[in-house]
Amino acid sequence: MSHVSSKGVSIYFFWAKSRYVRFSECGRKAESQFPNPVLMHLQRTVMDQQSGTLRGMFDSEERLDLFLAAFEAGVLPKCDWNHAAHLAVATCYLLSYSEEESLTRLRKHIRYLNDCHGTVNSLDSGYHETLTRFWLKILRRFLNTIPDPVLRLEAVNRVVAGYAQSKNLCAEYYSFDVVKSRKARVSWIPPDLTTFE
Prior knowledge:
Layout: H1 7-20, E1 21-23, E2 29-32, E3 46-47, E4 54-55, H2 61-73, H3 83-96, H4 99-117, H5 129-143, H6 152-163, H7 182-186
Antiparallel strand pairs: 1-2, 3-4
């Protein structure tokens, strides 16, 4: 069972997963015979272009808990596993764990979610070590600029509002195509154009 802060949400998610979703022995989602009641509460993150605010899964702590639970359990829909979702998970982890522990958790759960989606984690697809570490460092630097105390939901929304449209930020730090680099996918390569300072 995935960790979430609300006991009630934890129980509800466990019930929903066990009642409505069947899994194979390896944990991969085999089929959903009925709509998962938890995922019905998740809406895609939408940036309102006029107000600059977010609408969707990050508009309440409860939805953020459900989103994290779905991510860690491998049932978050592939269409919702976008850049904003990556940022939200990384931010939540950084607010609760060290950078190294956050990396360990991201590495584990992203690979698992990819498996559940049928995305192969290989030299050419799936989990990317350098990009994951890169964004953790970017977000840690950003979070350090936010005065304490800050609510988790507020921090997530600030991060997503600030970086959801900056998926290719790594191009400012690397002189080569780090996204397509096989070496960068499997191991950390520091930026060669500028530093994080």
